[in-house]
Amino acid sequence: GNSVTQMEGPVTLSEEAFLTINCTYTATGYPSLFWYVQYPGEGLQLLLKATKADDKGSNKGFEATYRKETTSFHLEKGSVQVSDSAVYFCALSVPSNTGKLIFGQGTTLQVKP
Amino acid sequence: DTGVSQDPRHKITKRGQNVTFRCDPISEHNRLYWYRQTLGQGPEFLTYFQNEAQLEKSRLLSDRFSAERPKGSFSTLEIQRTEQGDSAMYLCASSGRADEARDRGYTFGSGTRLTVV
Questions:
Q1: Based on C-alpha coordinates, what's the Rg of chain B?
Q2: What distance in Å separates the CA atoms of residue B95 and residue B101, rounded to the nearest whole number?
Q3: Torsion of CA A18, A22, A28, A30, to 10 degrees
Q4: CB A67, CB A14: distance < 8 Å
Q5: Which long-range contacts link B47-54 to residues 24+ away (Cβ below 8 Å)?
Q6: Which of A32, A102, A104 sits opposite B102 (nearest CB)?
Q7: Euclidean distance between CA atoms A19 and A33, whole angstroms
């Protein structure tokens, strides 16, 4: 079946530290991959995406590369800020007509000044 | 366009009562999705509409749950005879065509948080 596994949280970092949040997936076919971010009290916002192998998605200093050989889509940022504190969800979209997303369990990031 | 709107933001109800939530998608989006998110978990797919047609329902959607999208605009999600296990955040999202959903993701609302006491 289709599934997404993220690293356990919470991840606690000091401001300007390097961030990696691991995400691996299992899917039939060739899914599109996404990172969504959820700030406290808000809905999910699309952070970045990649639609095929070796694509790199990037936004707001965050990056993730679609690695088909390792079935991974790890999220990275070179220098985190306090404002990056949120819950991050990795997700995949199966290649069907539905377009539904399969989410990981989320990773909470806490950035301390 | 103000994005995807959900109402109410919070709902507290007694076990056994019926509740109804509303979602107003982005006006030009013909696809609408409902997800459920429990504490510490990622959202789980519940159901999906293309225009007014409900095309897929998850096994999570028991007989107590019903969703509608009359006229292909707003959608409602009703839960009958609520149970404590129904306590969760109910998220609505919308998108354009299938390839847009697959390639761009979709726009989520802020959710309705249901607490069953």
A1: 14
A2: 6
A3: 10
A4: no
A5: B48/A98, B48/A99, B48/A100, B49/B75
A6: A32
A7: 19
Q: Do B48 and A104 touch (CB under 8 A)?
A: no
Strands B112-116 and B10-13: parallel
Query: In Å, how far are A15, A80, B33 from B75, measured between CA atoms?
Result: 42, 38, 9
- DSSP characters for B56-90? EE-TTS-TTEEEE-GGGS-EEEEESS--GGG-EEE
The two tokens of residue A64 are 């993730």
Mean pLDDT of chain A: 93
Question: CA Rg, chain A, in Å?
Answer: 14
pLDDT digits (tens, 9 = 90+) for B51-106: 999 998 998 888 999 999 998 899 999 999 999 999 999 999 999 887 777 777 78
- Residues of A whose CB is below 8 A from B93: 44
